[in-house]
Amino acid sequence: MTQERTLSIIKPDATRRNLIGKIITKLEDGGLKVVAQKKIQLTQEMAKEFYEVHKDRPFYNDLVNFMISGPVVVQVLEGENAVLKNREIMGATNPDEAKPGTIRKEFAESLEANSVHGSDSIDNAKIEVSFFFDDEEIVG
Ligand code: CMP
């Protein structure tokens, strides 16, 4: 099995409710290792660029405003099949559809305020990791 890296974001609804530790525990218990991490306040410009793929969707402006409504934790997770594993641990985008025990089922407030983001493919993981981190900031 190949080791992968993926980008994870703990979103403002979760940092506001002091859930950072509980979310990281779920990721670690699921076999993922945090190899880079920082708590930051996104600017509007950064949030717009990060979610540019959604720029034509009706929820884009609200999503950008939500993502800058408080600090986020951006982190790189490493492990076997890390991209898929992270998505399994997060649960479905819509918390109403997320399986029991997943982060979004337990913690998400809504489809928008869904507590975490995770890269959806290996290619996007590379793009998203390099959006936030230089190579020397990632320590396996
Ligand atoms: P995320 O995995 O960060 O990717 C895009 C985000 O847009 C998603 O999680 C949700 O927080 C948010 N979002 C808001 N409305 C929708 C929607 N109708 N469909 C998908 N994502 C949505």
Verbal overview:
The protein has 140 residues and is α+β, with helices and mostly antiparallel strands. The chain has 7 helices and 4 strands. The protein has helices at 12-16, 20-29, 44-50, 60-67, 82-90, 103-107, 122-132, and strands at 3-10, 33-40, 72-80, 116-118. Strands 2-3-1-4 form a 4-stranded antiparallel sheet. The longest helix is centred in the C-terminal third of the chain and has 11 residues, at 122-132. It is globular and about 40 Å long. Adenosine-3',5'-cyclic-monophosphate (CMP) binds next to loops.
Q: What's the layout of helices and strands?
A:
Blueprint: E1 3-10, H1 12-16, H2 20-29, E2 33-40, H3 44-50, H4 60-67, E3 72-80, H5 82-90, H6 103-107, E4 116-118, H7 122-132
Antiparallel strand pairs: 1-3, 1-4, 2-3
Bound molecules: adenosine-3',5'-cyclic-monophosphate.
Largest sheet: 4 strands, antiparallel
Number of helices: 7
Share of residues in helices: 25-40%
Q: What is the CA–CA distance across the termini?
A: 17 Å
Overall geometry comes to globular
Work out the strand percent: 15-25%
Name the hetero compounds present: adenosine-3',5'-cyclic-monophosphate
Spatial sequence of strands, sheet with the most strands:
2-3-1-4
The low-confidence runs, each spanning 5 or more residues with pLDDT under 50, are: none
N-to-C series of helices and strands: EHHEHHEHHEH
Let me know the number of strands: 4
Q: What's the overall average pLDDT, rounded?
A: 98
What is the gyration radius calculated from CA atoms?
A: 14 Å
* Helix vs. strand class: alpha+beta
